[in-house]
Amino acid sequence: MTLLQVNNLSIAFGGLRAVDDFSLEIEKGELYGLIGPNGAGKTTVFNLLTGVYKPNEGIIRLDGEDITRKNTIEINHAGIARTFQNIRLFHQMSVIDNVKVGLTERFKYSGIEGVLHVGRYKAMEKAMDEEAMKLLKVFDLDSERDVLASNLPYGKQRKLEIARAMATSPKLLLLDEPAAGMNPNETAELMDTIALVRKEFDMTILLIEHDMKLVSGICEKLTVLNFGRVLKQGETKEVLDDPEVIKAYLGED
Ligand SMILES: Nc1ncnc2c1ncn2[C@@H]1O[C@H](COP(=O)(O)OP(=O)(O)OP(=O)(O)O)[C@@H](O)[C@H]1O
Ligand SMILES: [Mg+2]
Prior knowledge:
The protein is of the alpha/beta class. It folds into 2 domains: about 1-80 and about 170-253, Rossmann fold (3-Layer(aba) Sandwich); about 90-170, no CATH class. Helices cover about 40% and strands about 25% of the residues. It is built from 10 helices and 10 strands. The chain has helices at about 40-50, 70-80, 95-110, 110-115, 120-140, 155-165, 185-200, 210-220, 235-240, 245-250; strands spanning about 1-15, 15-25, 30-35, 55-60, 65, 80, 170-175, 205-210, 220-225, 230-235. The strands form 2 sheets. The chain has a 6-stranded mixed β-sheet, with helices on both faces. Strands 2-1-4-5 form a 4-stranded antiparallel β-sheet, with helices on one face. Strand 9 and strand 10 (about 230-235) form a beta hairpin. The longest helix is centred in the middle third of the chain and has 18 residues, at about 120-140. The model has no long low-confidence stretch (mean pLDDT about 90). The structure holds adenosine-5'-triphosphate and magnesium ion (MG). Magnesium ion binds near residues 42, 43 and 85. Adenosine-5'-triphosphate binds near residues 13, 38, 44 and 85.
């Protein structure tokens, strides 16, 4: 079953067609990679998928629902969560409070809202604490629940960012260069975390990444962007062996 269907998406900034006639289909449960040289338009695709930018043309459907014109909050409720190329956390808040920020939105829209109306604020706090701890356990961050986010080592900050995104209970998780700035040990651990998220939550994941070891190790399918356009899409191995892809991207370093 198709979870994400993107048809002919385009956006221009001034004269620059940052994303140009971009189409993509992701099946439920897939781990899909989006790769390409610096400035190819990868993050712009994420910004379009999450409503940060509105496309000039094209349609985005999530689970059959047209989300093209929705704003970032509506799209998060529809089921897309993301992490950012440069980590975005509430650095002066504790680990658990960062996750609870993600949970708040979800709880507002669930039955727990009723609890709030009858004034049982404490019951909601308790439910959120429990839910947050469950998530932190999955990410092996439960023993750091009261640590300030800024005091976590880099690899754990990345994990926390993913945990917070997962707290909104998405159908699709977008990760923008999660391994950027990581050492090989942290990258290996990150690969395990991504595999775990997939298994524990049955998650569909779209991942932007430059680390080819990570990409070829975990992605089933790839799309290569180049100058805003799709250069190639398909099974990971077939894409990475393609001479045009090697020339445009892989051969560069
Ligand atoms: N808001 C904006 N205004 C103007 N130009 C933009 C804007 N956002 C992105 N661009 C331009 O669009 C192009 C694609 O940028 P984008 O950040 O999507 O690339 P990327 O593939 O994510 O690159 P990297 O691998 O370096 O992160 C770049 O030329 C960038 O300068
Ligand atoms: Mg980018």
